[in-house]
Amino acid sequence: MGKVAVGADNFLYPMPMVLVGANVGGKPNFLAVAFFSAIQMKPPVLAVSLNKIRYTNDGIKENKTFSVNIPSVELMEAVDYCGINSGKKVDKSGIFETFYGKLETAPMIKNCPVCMECRLIETADIVTDNIVFVGDVVETYTDDQYLTGGVLDLIKTNPFLFSVRDKKYISIGERIGGAWEAGKNYK
Amino acid sequence: MGKVAVGADNFLYPMPMVLVGANVGGKPNFLAVAFFSAIQMKPPVLAVSLNKIRYTNDGIKENKTFSVNIPSVELMEAVDYCGINSGKKVDKSGIFETFYGKLETAPMIKNCPVCMECRLIETADIVTDNIVFVGDVVETYTDDQYLTGGVLDLIKTNPFLFSVRDKKYISIGERIGGAWEAGKNYK
After folding, report:
1. Which of A119, B7, B135, B163 could potentially form a cystine with A154 if both were Cys, beta carbons 3.0 to 4.6 Å apart?
2. What is the domain-level CATH number for residue A155?
3. Do B37 and A41 touch (CB under 8 A)?
4. Which residues of chain A does B143 touch, with a Cβ-Cβ cutoff of 8 Å?
5. Tens of pLDDT along A89-140?
6. Is some CB atom of chain B closer than 8 A to the CB atom of A25?
7. DSSP symbol at A184
8. Does residue A86 sit at the B interface (CB-CB below 8 Å)?
9. What CA–CA distance (Å, rounded) separates A108 from A115?
């Protein structure tokens, strides 16, 4: 097995697709985002990295709130539409049925299985082209149909992934093993 | 459809599982990590968020280099083992066949389909329990068998995901649509 160098590239993992929501000019706007990760467990904190040209940024800075919505496969066309079209040119406020939570200014999407309502705690200007928005999750919303025994069931929410190099969306598969368990008897 | 609040939670998306590599005390060490994301496209930059108690941290700070290795399903037991056991107690230098690239101090894993060699550019102390290490990807390595028409084929690399709430690893599924294409005719 000989490794080949393929040039510096960071897109070679399955990227979870989310929709970042913010009120811009008083109207809900949603951006398709794959640069997204939790960064702390308790209290729950997450980060999204948005290109500095994004329309969404002004809304996040103004309200100091945003949302991260996890769409299911059924919303793939709408998500892709939100990725292709900027809020600068297209009014995206009517695409989804939206709702607000305790922060009052972070628009969330009713037909996304999971919506995370976030308070902005830091704006990190680390790299040249993107801004990293870091948020405390203040509340998370779902629907009863996605719970199994009171616990959110990722398989039921049917999220999807982004494979950048071949420009494809990819579904998730099935449970293949237990975490903090599969490696107990390793070696 | 009425949303239910389930408490602040940020683990409700499919998290890509990676192994973060660093030399600690001159020896390769690998940590299973799910708090990981690219944060910029060009030049490629990525970030990993590690708990402040991690053994790996000292190595990253000392060498200012680290690696992000994307394991395939076949390595699930070994990855889980690297998540359960700290390098403080267990020598993980012999688990994988390792190699080094141009930075010379970022250990990478030969039998991971994708290895990203990173130079530390920032250590962000944003939250209480975790440190976010931000790295420039200086080179990426793969094997010919994972390329299709010269492009890395995510399906062939067979990575897997972490579903935290039910403590399961999940495989990826299949291509379900074109990115920057599926939404062209939306509405």
Report:
1. B163
2. 2.30.110.10
3. no
4. 1-4
5. 999 999 999 999 999 999 999 999 999 999 999 999 999 999 999 999 999 9
6. no
7. T
8. no
9. 6
